[in-house]
Design goal:
Helix content is 41%, strand content 10%. With 411 residues, the protein is an alpha/beta fold.
Length: 411
């Protein structure tokens, strides 16, 4: 069903990216027919593509995204509730102009639960929103035709929106790291932290997530909470999460991955000390459990897993409209509704994976930039991205990772 929708909307409306690898396979087929099994002389010539957005029917709409998930029917009632809250956060997100929802009908994640969640997130919600229940409609072809027609009507409405100047207080920056190395905590992460402090001082919001990667630095964050209640909430969520990990035979102390360990981050304390630097030195203005919305200026702590795709999914669901993702080993990660900027901790990575890295914080290691200078550059890149002047590599590559966090068991 998803393939039908994509073919009907993305290709016909001009949002479908050039299928480079399909063309690559077609070239291999042609070479095989011409030369047989000898492919040593094969050279792929990539076709030129039209400029992005040129000739679009709806020029004020950047694209159409398809969010699929494996939850809804199975799992606990808690997981279904959380899924509805996450989807509500996505649809109310400032980067989203409207949504079409396809529902089976009998699942735990009922439409009513979603509607209540959306009302809570945005009581004044007024975007185009269309919901189709397959079991109520019956015929799949009929449902898809209705869904495509209504979506097209929504696109007409959304295209009336135009970009206008806005202050930085409307910017919500999510910060995350993945594939960290021994340089991450001394180049990329503190540079992002300096950027986060600048944004906080200017009235913007910053979200620091990945609670397993805050293991060992809890006291430092508690000391920065603006109230005892926030400190207590952080400890309660952190301790409950740690116990749930231990209950399934794991633990936060097992957080470093094989790649982390190979590159110098051999303990959870070392990894956490570097990871926490992404949040800068500002006071903690709020503590959020998964899917709770960031509403207070300054630094917000958000409970998410350390898993990169689940974390970026959660950051966007809580309102991040730009994500800064630091990496020392490389990670092709993105999000369907929130631009993800990749910052390398070392110059070798930025050269090796230039197709996914947006900016090289390795210049701090070589002495060509200070942390303050790099942090200022990162804020400028944020502003250019939010203004539509710069498209992150993850956006250009179509890295649209959407994996809701499943906290319960499957039933």
């Amino acid at each position: 069903m998803e393939v039908i929708k994509k073919n009907a909307l993305l290709k016909e409306l001009g949002y479908a990216p050039t299928d480079k690898y399909r063309n690559f396979t077609q070239s291999l087929i042609t070479a095989f027919k011409k030369n047989g099994e000898n492919l040593e002389e094969f050279v792929f010539e990539e076709q030129e593509t039209n400029a992005e957005g040129k000739g679009l029917l709806f020029p004020n709409i950047d694209g159409i995204k398809f969010l699929t998930h494996t939850g809804g029917c199975g799992g606990t009632r808690e997981d279904s509730q959380i899924l509805c809250q996450l989807l509500a956060g996505y649809i109310a997100h400032p980067n989203v102009a409207g949504a079409t929802i396809l529902s089976l009908g009998c699942q735990n994640a009922q439409v009513k639960i979603f509607q209540e969640a959306l009302q809570k997130v945005d009581p004044n919600f007024s975007k185009p929103l269309y919901i189709f229940d397959q079991q109520a409609i019956g015929n799949e072809d009929e449902m898809l035709q209705k869904a495509i027609k209504q979506t097209f009507a929504g696109l007409i409405s959304a295209n009336r929106n135009i970009r206008r100047p806005a202050s930085l207080q409307h910017l919500t920056l999510g910060v995350e790291c993945g594939g960290s190395d021994g340089f991450s905590g001394i180049s990329a992460n503190p540079s992002v932290g300096f950027c986060a402090d600048l944004l906080s001082a200017l009235g913007g919001k910053v979200i620091l997530a990945e609670f397993p990667e805050l293991c060992g630095v809890e006291q430092e964050l508690i000391n920065r909470c603006i109230s005892d209640d926030l400190a207590e909430k952080f400890l309660t969520i952190q301790n409950a999460y740690a116990k749930s990990a231990e209950a399934v035979g794991s633990g936060f102390d097992m957080n470093p991955s094989p790649g982390n360990i190979k590159d110098g981050l051999i303990t959870d304390a070392m990894k956490s000390a570097g990871a926490a630097k992404k949040g800068g030195n500002s006071l903690v203005s709020d503590v959020l459990d998964y899917t709770e919305q960031a509403s207070k200026p300054g630094l917000n702590l958000l409970c998410t897993p350390g898993n990169d795709a689940e974390c970026t999914t959660g950051l966007a669901g809580s309102g991040a409209n730009i994500i800064m993702f630091t990496t020392g080993l490389g990670n092709p990660m993105g999000n369907p509704i929130c631009p993800v900027l990749k910052i390398s901790s070392n110059t070798a990575l930025s050269e090796k994976m230039s197709d996914i890295i947006d900016i090289n914080a390795g210049l701090v290691i070589t002495g060509e930039k200070t942390i303050e200078e790099m942090g200022t550059d990162l804020l400028e890149l944020c502003i250019k991205t939010a203004s539509g002047e710069y498209k992150p590599k993850a956006v250009l590559l179509g890295h649209d990772d959407f994996i809701p966090w499943k906290r319960g068991v499957s039933l």
